[in-house]
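Pasting as-is:
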Amino acid sequence: MQGKSRPPATAAEAISRMDTYVALGLIGQQEVAQALGLNVTDLTCLGHVLGAAAEPLSAGDLAERANLTTGAVTGVLNRLEKAGYAHRVPDPADRRRVRVVADPAAVVRLTELYQPFYDRLGELFARYTPEETAVIADWFTHAAEAARAHLDALRGPTG
């Protein structure tokens, strides 16, 4: 596959387009969270739990990935358990720790909600060469690092 010629764009134009995408993503996350009876933070954490799949996260790992305190994650886990989306299981290597596992029905429900969007994104990625897709993936990796650093700076030295 050969990449298509693309119109030029400045960094400012790309950032503006990213802002539009992020704003739509935030609204989309709110809609999905509402459909599941969750708040956006709980949905984000559930996404991390689902993403970990075969290697269930500890509560501390989840806190780190979601940029939350361990106390906040305790509340999240309580709500996810109460809603039936996830549960805690003892860590087989250290019985003092717990791991977080998604309920199989949660996987089905989230797939129902997200798959149409992922299908659309798959169609979009099909317009790009593997090399272009690699650049996009690399950009998202580094943009996430920049976002995490900015969030850390906003929160200050105590996090």
